């Protein structure tokens, strides 16, 4: 591990020996709708070998790419690998045309329809728990009931929080899982989000890069660092700068 103080300093470093640069998103390039110092320069400098590997489970690559464009941080959808979307795509391959119970935001529900899955709560073949801001006690009750069907639970990512732009932690999918575990302490589930190596493997396959040619950059040793280790990829740990100024002088949405 090679600690680096910030994205700003990393943006000035040559990383030329790496054919593929894989980078986490929240806490590395952005926080909410604010862009960290150096992130735009870093993305521009490494544009042709940069791949975003994120535990984001609220967006698809398409919706996230559109949001990043509005933040003047243009990254193409095909260069974005997200935990929620990739979980859904794997479920669609494993259970073509099946019923799926989803606790997720609209972009993932729309993608499920596009992939031919039948979204509903009746006799699901599988259950997906992703980041959903309107998840409440009624949602939790429905999830507990759905699990009684015996359908396997897939949790997009296990992060309890991600860094917020004001320096406060933002609740994540793992916080919803913690609520479920308060009701069902021994609930079984699967997750391909970091620290599992699956998302890194997908990015490497898209990049056509070997593990030895790649570098992973992340702010969380417990997810990013362990995923890089599991995938056999070099890792740089950067420290999120904490609270960001109200405006960094560029357009935000
Ligand atoms: Mg992060």
Automatic annotation (TrEMBL):
<dbReference type="GO" id="GO:0005737">
    <property type="term" value="C:cytoplasm"/>
</dbReference>
<dbReference type="InterPro" id="IPR036412">
    <property type="entry name" value="HAD-like_sf"/>
</dbReference>
<protein>
    <submittedName>
        <fullName>Haloacid dehalogenase</fullName>
    </submittedName>
</protein>
<dbReference type="InterPro" id="IPR006357">
    <property type="entry name" value="HAD-SF_hydro_IIA"/>
</dbReference>
<dbReference type="Pfam" id="PF13344">
    <property type="entry name" value="Hydrolase_6"/>
</dbReference>
<dbReference type="Pfam" id="PF13242">
    <property type="entry name" value="Hydrolase_like"/>
</dbReference>
<dbReference type="GO" id="GO:0016791">
    <property type="term" value="F:phosphatase activity"/>
</dbReference>
<dbReference type="InterPro" id="IPR023214">
    <property type="entry name" value="HAD_sf"/>
</dbReference>
């Amino acid at each position: 591990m090679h600690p680096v103080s910030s994205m700003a300093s990393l943006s000035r470093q040559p990383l030329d020996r790496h054919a593929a640069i894989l980078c986490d998103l929240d806490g590395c390039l952005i926080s909410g709708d604010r862009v960290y110092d150096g992130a735009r320069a870093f993305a521009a400098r490494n544009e042709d070998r940069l791949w975003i590997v994120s535990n984001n489970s609220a967006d698809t690559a398409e919706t996230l790419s559109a949001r990043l464009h509005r933040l003047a941080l243009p990254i193409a959808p095909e260069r974005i690998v997200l935990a929620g979307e990739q979980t859904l795509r794997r479920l669609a391959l494993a259970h073509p045309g099946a019923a799926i119970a989803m606790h997720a935001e609209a972009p993932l529900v729309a993608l499920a329809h596009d992939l031919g899955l039948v979204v509903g709560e009746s006799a699901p073949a599988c259950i997906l728990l992703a980041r959903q801001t309107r998840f409440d006690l009624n949602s939790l009750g429905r999830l507990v009931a759905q699990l009684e069907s015996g359908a396997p639970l897939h949790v997009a990512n296990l992060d309890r929080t991600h860094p917020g732009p004001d320096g406060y932690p933002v609740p994540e999918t793992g916080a919803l899982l913690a609520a479920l575990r308060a009701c069902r302490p021994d609930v079984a589930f699967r997750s391909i989000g970091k620290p599992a190596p699956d998302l890194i493997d997908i990015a490497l396959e898209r990049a056509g890069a070997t593990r030895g040619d790649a570098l992973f950059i992340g702010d969380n040793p417990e997810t990013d660092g362990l995923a890089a280790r599991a995938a056999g990829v070099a890792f740089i740990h950067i420290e999120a700068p904490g609270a960001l100024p109200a405006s960094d002088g560029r357009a935000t949405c």
